[in-house]
Every structure is written in structure tokens, then in C-alpha cells.
Amino acid sequence: MSAMTSSLDMLSLDAGDLSLRIASRELSCRDLMRASLARIEALNPRFNAIVSLRDADVLLAEAGVRDDELAQGRRRGWMHGFPLAVKDLADAQGLPTTMGSPAMGRHPAARDALFVERMKNAGAIVIGKTNTPEFGLGSHTYNPVFGTTGNAYDPSRTAGGSSGGAAVALALRMVPVSDGSDMGGSLRNPAAWNNVVGMRPSRGRVPAVPAEDVFFQQLGTEGPMARCVDDVARLLSTMSGWDDRAPLSLADRLPDPQAQDPIDCAHGKRIGWLGPIWPDLPLEPGILPLCEAALRTLQGLGCQVEPCTLDFPRERNWTTWLRLRQLLTGGKLAPLYADAHKRALLKPEAVWEIEQSHSLTAAQLYQASVSRTALYQAFRKLFERYDYVIAPTAQVFPFDAALTWPRSIAGTAMDTYHRWMEIVTPFTLAGLPVVSMPVGFNQQGLPMGMQIAGPTRADSSVLALARAYEAATGWTRRRSPPAIA
Q1: Cβ-contact 82, 176 below 8 angstroms
Q2: What is the mean pLDDT of the chain?
Q3: pLDDT tens-place string over residues 296-346
Q4: pTM
Q5: What pLDDT does 258 receive?
Q6: pLDDT of residue 214
Q7: Residue 351 vs residues 139, 252, 333, 334: alpha-carbon distances, Å
Q8: What CATH number is associated with residue 31?
Q9: Is residue 120 one of the residues assigned to a domain?
Q10: What is the separation, in whole angstroms, between the first and last Cα of the chain?
Q11: pLDDT tens-digit series, residues 335-345
């Protein structure tokens, strides 16, 4: 291995570049696996991003098989030999899916989730799982099974969630790319707080298989996270596509976002700046100035930026969110709640969601669906004027990891465990493609991001603008976490 391809340089490569070097056999899969495991050994005890790590000798042997395949002229795909850690809400065959809850046990999964199967078919080697909040509830990654995941830029702070382990493993270069899932900002929030790129794709873009609630589960979705936009696009292409077991999945293929020049993707585009979305939505000081600086960068690329308003009441949005989330969460966790022993093991926020769901009526759920449609139409009206709309990714900077959740923002009390992430909910409800892009750091060195959203199914367009912005800023490359800098 040359000086250019030392372990340090290898882990710093974007996934696309890494893929090409493995394909040309400039780098070996075994060397990549060895370097990744060494990074995990050095940093994971401090940050706790990866859990259920498989045996190193077994993983090195599997990487050796990938090298033998390349020597024989066989390449499985662009992820050939990549170490992959799957978020611990999804099944990866042979590994436990604990969901961060002692009520789930540690039974090995009998099969892969569809998106995991697709990544493995592209050549990835599953090395373990990434940590998550219990059942993915709350944008702060801690649980009684594996403990708390620390932020990549300050492990005393939260990593965000629920894909917190995925974001930290990615930011610390333990893995080249990460999968995650997003209902209440779970791909966007940890990406913003760890200075990487996270995308919640359009509803149906990534099929959920297996899923017993396929006709109801339209709030949560799997999606990609990476250190650059091109890698997000590559991973999304791998994870997405029609499957007849998921009748709401999308069949159209995504075009290559690199086919256009980044500047051409931005010049003349109309951007609506939503700010905090609603005037009374509290934000921690320092967030808006970072986002406004990012908007000035887009203006410098030729974008037309102007303030806009989402014509949909805040409380109607929140009531809609609560009822639909309670339907899904309460229904899914009801069997655990029905078992007195397992109920005692559930976190209070999970019990609250379940008990709230008990009082839901058919009329309330119908009206929530009507309101959700009205919200979609409000966004649709905005997109008649704008190509994209932008808002901050979070309402607070990464907070003390010892807290369960922030009780107030800028003097305003939070009335639920997830109210402090309200700013992500309208994009979820509308099913829009939205990517969180880094916008820089506050005076304490803590990262923040902004949400770039486009019309439904316009995933490639959103990625194209994100790529143009990234080319002009490059925050992920400009400022690495102190632990690896």
C-alpha cells in the first residue's frame, strides 16, 4: 500500500473515490476492513456509535473473499468490500435487532430488510449495527441496552437521532456511508449535528420490506447518509426501486445528479426561505444567522432567494402529526404494552405514545388525514412559485447528552418529548424529498444544518441543488471532528 493510500487517507476518501480504487485494485478490501476496524477500536469506546460488532477475524476473512472475487474479474457492485453498519431498527441477518429496548431481547434476525439486502448485493459487508434511541423515539440516541452515543464534535453532547449512531460512525470515518431512517427528522437532525449529509427521500422511494403496516406506514422511511452529496445519491439509488411486496413504492429510476454542472443546477433557481416556518416557533440563538449565510452562498451561485410563508396553521400541523404518529407508534408497540413484564421495560415516552393512541377515534384519524392533505396542498402552492423551500434542520444546537430532551427553547417550554423537533414535521407529513446540508458551526464548535426540500418525487432535483451548494462550501471536508483532525 502506497503512502497515498495509507489507512488514514483511505478512511478519508469519499465513498465514490474509494469504490473506484477498490475496483482498480489500488486498494484492497482487506486493508479497508482492517483500517475501519482499527478506527472503531480506537474511537468507538468513547463515542459508542457502533453496536453488536461482529468478530474481526470473520470480517477480515469476508473482505479477503471480496479481494479474491476482484482478482477473478468479479465485482458485486459499487459497494464491493465496504464495511456497513445497519441502523439497529432494521433487520440484518444473523445480528440482533434490539431497537435499543430490553423488551426486544437479542435474537438474531432471520433475514435482511430489503434495503440491507440491496446494499449487500452491491458488495457491502455488514460489520454490525449503529446505535439508536429506544424504538427510534426521540432525536437523542440513548437507550438502556447500549447506552448513549456522543456527538462526533463533542462526545459530551447528543449525537441527535434516531440515526445518531449512523451519523457519528460516518463523521468519524468508521464507515464510508450509512443507512438510516426518518420519521421525525431522524436522518436530518443527526446529519446536521454531525456535519454530514442526510436525506429523507420522497415517500415510497425506498420500499419498506418486510412491513406489516405497509398501507399505513407513510411517515417513516429509510434513506441515505454520507459525507458528500454524490455518495448520498449513489446510496439512495441502491436502496430505492419498486418491489411488489411494497405496493406504495416508486418505480421510476433516479437520474445521475452528476450529469449537470453544479453551477448550472443552481443558476436562476427560485428559493423560498421559510425561516422558522411559523413566527412563534422558538429557535436557539445563532441558528438563523448560519442558515442565512448559507442562503447568501446560494445567491452567489445565481439563485433567487426570498422569504416565504407556509399557509398552514402551526397547531393544525402539530395535531395532525401527533395523531398519525400515535396511530403508528401505539399500534406497533401495543403487543409489548399488553405484556405487563415488557411494559415495565419500556421508556416513558413509548408508554405515553401507546396510551395516547388508546383515546384516538376514527373521526380524529380521518380529520388528521384531511389535514395532512391540506398541508400537502399548501406546499404544492409554494412550489408553483419556488423550485425549492429551505428551513433550519433543528431548533437547537446539540445539547448535553445527559439530558433526555430539552425542556425549553429560548424560554419557551416544550410540552412533549419531541416538540423541540417540530420544524421537521411538515416535510414529513407532506412526504417531500428533503436533504439536510451543513451550514457551519456556532461559537462552541457545534454543527448545524438546513433543510432543502423540493416537490414530491423531485429527489434528484433536490440532490442537484445540494451538490451545487456543497461545491461552494464543502463543510464536511473543511472541518473534521477533533478526534480525527
Answers
A1: yes
A2: 95
A3: 999 999 999 999 999 999 999 999 999 999 999 999 999 999 999 999 999
A4: 0.97
A5: 63
A6: 76
A7: 17, 39, 9, 9
A8: 3.90.1300.10
A9: yes
A10: 22
A11: 999 999 999 99
Task: Tell me the β-bridge partners of 181.
Answer: 222
Residue 413: all three cell numbers together: 417550554
Residues of the chain with pLDDT under 50: 1-4
Q: Which DSSP string corresponds to 58-96? A: HHHHHHHHHHHHHHTT----TTTT-EEEEETTS--BTSB
- DSSP type of residue 254: P
For residue 264, the model assigns a pLDDT of: 78
The upper half-sphere exposure of residue 273, i.e. CA atoms within 13 Å in the direction of its Cβ, equals 16
**Among all residues, which ones are annotated catalytic?**
87, 162, 186
For 122-151, give one letter per residue: b (16+ CB within 10 A) or e.
Answer: bbbbbbbbbbbbbbbbbbbbbbebbebbbb
The answer to the question of residue 148 being in a domain is yes
CA distance 8 to 17: 15
Report whether 365 contacts 331 (CB < 8 A).
no
What's the burial of 243, exposed, middle or buried (CB within 10 Å: 0-12/13-18/19+)? Answer: middle
Q: Are 432 and 202 in contact (CB under 8 A)?
A: yes
In a domain, 485, yes or no: no
Long-range contacts of 478-483 (CB under 8 A, 24+ apart): 479/195, 479/441, 481/152, 481/153, 481/171, 481/172, 481/194, 481/195, 482/153, 482/445, 483/43, 483/46, 483/47, 483/152, 483/172
As to burial, measured by CB atoms within 10 angstroms (0-12 exposed, 13-18 middle, 19+ buried), residue 72 is exposed
Reported as type and span, the H/E element at residue 235 is helix 229-239
| pLDDT of amino acid 60 | 98
Distance CA 289, CA 106 (A): 45
What's the number of domains the chain is made of? Answer: 1
Backbone φ, ψ for residue 107 (5° rounding): -80, 135
> Domain range for residue 82?
3-478
Spatial CB neighbours of 376, under 8 Å, sequence gap ≥ 6: 429, 430, 431, 456
Q: Please report whether residue 356 resides in a domain.
A: yes
What are the helix (H) ranges across 72-158?
114-121
